[in-house]
Amino acid sequence: MKIASWNINSVRFRSAIVAQFLTEAAPDILCLQETKVVDEDFPHDLFESHGYVHRVVHGQRMHHGVAIVSRVPIAEDDRLDWQANREARHVGVRLPNGVRLENVYVPAGGDEPDREVNPKFGQKLDFVARMTEWSRSLACPTILTGDFNIAPLPSDVWSHKALLKVVSHTPIEVEALDGLMTSNDWVDLGRHFHPAPARLHTWWSYRSPDWTKNDRGRRLDHMWATGDVARQAVAHTVFESCRSWEKPSDHVPIMTEFAF
Asked: What is the extent of the structural domain holding 236?
């Protein structure tokens, strides 16, 4: 079973590259973040035509939004409000084998890494703290994936020194994500298959006219699994070439293959 995750930055605007990815990579399940569409306007026909007949969407107009589309049966399991303001940032399903699949879009956190002057940064830290509390009591096989908006390792960014005070790689964010990981038996599948310090970026800013020229990437997108599920993972791929497709997202898809 191939499970993919992609912050698509508007699923309708980028429908052409979504279709291209489904055709070329053929994931069994695709988790989307930042869909930017209310549920009734989600492009169901696009996914139906590619065989993704099972869909769970949790949308919101203009911002946020998550969805899980699948070629295998899925049953909606939960929609957790880790943002504590009803933003559409999480949806979870249960797979036919009983494994839970949780799709999350962690807030970016604004520009200033100080919750006193930037409430968005505080919201991000509180979001991760609520995820950590949920994780501590988790007692079933689970995959946690999505846009975490945190690059935890020095090798997860183009320059560790330059980004220490930049939101997404600050020590306080890294500490929060480390706390989430140690709260349960989580395995970071990206680094499991591509150990640090291997380059493994998933995001490049739109601000650079040529993202390939300076390659200032960060690893913001992750797929984790509890230990029992991680032992069944056989491969993990980052589709970096998608960043050069027409009308690209600033994120690229990631995908893990499991031998269930």
From this structure: 2-258
Q: What is the CATH number of the domain that holds 44?
A: 3.60.10.10
Query: Phi and psi of 23, rounded to 5°?
Result: -70, -45
The residue among 88, 56, 89, 90 whose CA lies nearest residue 75 is 56
Of 77-86, 130-139, 207-216, least confident by mean pLDDT is 207-216
Question: In this structure, what token pair is assigned to residue 44?
Answer: 């169901």
Tally of structural domains, the chain:
1
Largest distance between two CA atoms of the chain: 48
Taking CA 225 as the corner, what is the angle to CA 176 and CA 216, rounded to the nearest 5 degrees?
60
For residue 21, the surrounding DSSP H or E stretch is helix 15-25
The chain-wide mean pLDDT, for the chain, equals 97
193, 229 Cβ separation under 8 angstroms: no
Question: What does the alpha-carbon distance between residue 10 and residue 62 come to, in Å, rounded to a whole number?
Answer: 8
